[in-house]
Please model this.
Amino acid sequence: MKKDEVARLQAYLRKTFGASTLEVRPQPKKDDMAEVFINNEFVAALYREEEDGETSYQLQMAILDMDLEGV
Model:
């Protein structure tokens, strides 16, 4: 993903989730993927999809059963 695209996505996600420490980091080997971190902890993968001339983004977050312990 391009630098300006990552910055726009990061601003959007920070505003949407109210997480000022959220950071979107592009993957150097993949131009259609980035990783999302909060407080330097990986929380999700972010994919760009292009179909019929339109661009959309998919945020994929896995929540493990062990992550729910103590909540």
